Amino acid sequence: MKRFSDPPGRLCLAVACGWLAFSEPTRAQLVLSGNENKLDLSTGDPRVVPDAPPDTLTILDFSSFPPSVTHVTNIPNSVIGPPSNIAVHPNGRMALVASSIKIASPVATHWVPDNRIFVLDISHRPPRVVAEVQAELQPSGMSFTSDGRKVLVANRASGTVSVFAVDGFTLRQIQSIKVCEPAESVSDVAVSPDGNLALASVKVGGYVAVLRFDGREFVASKRKTSVSGQPYRLLITPDGELGLVAGLGFGKGVDVDELTIIDLRAREPRTIGHVPLGTVPESIELSPDGRLLAAVVMDGSSLAPDDPLRTDKAHLIILERKGNTFVRRQRLDFPPVPSGVVFTGDGRYLVAQCHLERELLIYAVRGSRVRDTGRRIRVPGNPSSLRAGPKP
Q: How many domains are there within the chain?
């Protein structure tokens, strides 16, 4: 693991002063947005941006509302992969950002898998990179165990899930678990609250894999859990009872895609239901208490401009848990091409990314409904990944 005693030469910080006004106090919570500059999605398919500036990271501090905003430059990240390629340690001091892909050369028009994970001290002022970890090919979705002693990483181009032991800001790989063939694209990973089970979404393969902790290491089950569409963003409810995965379908057109619900209390996890979401659910996220589920769906907004099925709006979907299923409470219009969505750790606010507009939209959460606050935060790049965590 490469370590840094000081921030990299190009790493710098800028505070968006226009958002420093204070109003009602809130519990200290952080939201991190990874913003990519090297790829453009406006034509319907990713294309390389020549001479693009470095990718960035934006940190929102919800100690007060509106949140204060910090931008950190030269933090490579990517829209290629689920928006969970950021992870925040349970203690709120450390964050991980995966560099899933890189441009093959300065003049290249295509990308190749990367294998770097950046370790940030987000308690430092300014936040800084303190280490660079070598992962396997195309690290994507990442999740810490609830005790913060391990982090699991889904490696799309390797077909593996890596397990790293965490000691302070030091990460040491202790396992590499073969989940599928690289072409099947294991994209995201979620860990149960007790740390004894993990789920991994195998996107192209079209199933969810189960990993069990036997007291010493995680072991992959041979069983493939059937799900709807191409599974992408993956969650486990805070009570550990349900696994939730959004299926992307084929990612084109206006066909309705679904949320798959997996019963984790059974001897073998099994799918027990599906809930329609919309077309191409790019991301889903649970409220801290597990009662609400937010999903951002493309609904045709990510298609090429000349595609007759292209639309000029996406949607934010809010569902509420009822026993072993979820029911829709709201469907709100959203700007074209959303990416990540996340609740703050106290459950009072929801943040969603608009990739094309380079904006973060903030919603207030009250009961089982959300309300657009009208707050828009401009970020230096196309927001692509999103995660929340506590402030130390």
A: 1
Q: Positive or negative CA dihedral for 232, 233, 236, 242? A: negative
DSSP H or E run through 273: strand 270-278
Q: Give the model confidence (pLDDT) of 257-305 as tens digits.
A: 999 999 999 889 999 999 999 999 999 999 999 999 999 999 999 888 8
Q: What is the Cα–Cα distance from 32 to 342, expressed in whole angstroms?
A: 10
Reported pTM: 0.91
Q: Residue 183 sits in a domain of what CATH number? A: 2.130.10.10
Q: What is the DSSP letter of 49?
A: P
Task: For residue 320, give both structure tokens.
Answer: 């509420």
Cα separation of the two ends of the chain: 25
**pLDDT tens per residue, range 211-228:** 999 999 999 999 999 999
Segment (H or E) for 387:
strand 382-390
Q: What angle do CA 167, 88, 81 make, to 5 degrees?
A: 115
Tokens found for residue 276? 């329609």
pLDDT above 90: percentage of residues in the chain: 81
